[in-house]
């Protein structure tokens, strides 16, 4: 007699799952731990549907995965204008090259000794960052003048060199990679030397000896 209600509860639960499968509704997952039924208490079978509510609610609260290439600040893309078309980019590049050539011809006409400008490449880009960082750290100051140091600007420039090294990893020639790594190392060393002098405590003067 005591075992009969238990078998009846299990049978009704299986029958309910089969009915929901036949009706096209997913059968609710049984809980991991279920208290044993006792005679006279209502069957816990119909209450299994309650377990679906938290899962559905959690699914609604789960944020959608970010799309590949999406930025951390969605408002940034809203502020940018639409990208130019291929025809617009080609037309602009042609006009730019023609304008730059006219400027170079004008300079060479006024200064016959000036030769044609060499083409710019990745090495010149790295050197430009390096020169900017060194000037921000006071390099190139004329003798007798107090150097003007922009330490935070130098840090930003050096960090940009680090970003450039990270984004171009595996896409550079051995020469380009060597130039970038050397420039980044030298710029960081100069920054460390400068900041060590800025943070060093002032040495108090030695008091004169008492006679």
Can you tell me about this structure?
- The protein is mainly alpha-helical and 211 residues long.
- Helices cover 56% and strands 0% of the residues.
- It has seven helices and no strands.
- The chain has helices spanning 4-22, 52-61, 74-79, 86-110, 122-136, 151-167, 174-199.
Count the DSSP helices. Answer: 7
- How far apart are the termini? 113 Å
Poorly predicted runs:
4-12, 45-59
Shape: flat
Please state the average pLDDT score. Answer: 75
Query: Which structural category fits the helices and strands?
Result: mainly alpha
Work out the strand percent: under 5%
Number of strands: 0
Order of helices and strands: HHHHHHH
Radius of gyration: 37 Å
Percentage of residues in helical conformation: 55-70%
- What is the quaternary state of this protein? single chain
The main sheet comes to:
none
Task: Please name the defining characteristics of this protein.
single chain; 211 residues; mainly alpha; 7 helices; 56% helix; flat
Architecture blueprint of SSEs:
Elements: H1 4-22, H2 52-61, H3 74-79, H4 86-110, H5 122-136, H6 151-167, H7 174-199
Helix pairs in contact: 5-6, 5-7, 6-7
Short note summarizing the structure:
The protein is an all-alpha fold. It has helices at residues 4-22, 52-61, 74-79, 86-110, 122-136, 151-167, 174-199. The longest helix has 26 residues, at 174-199.
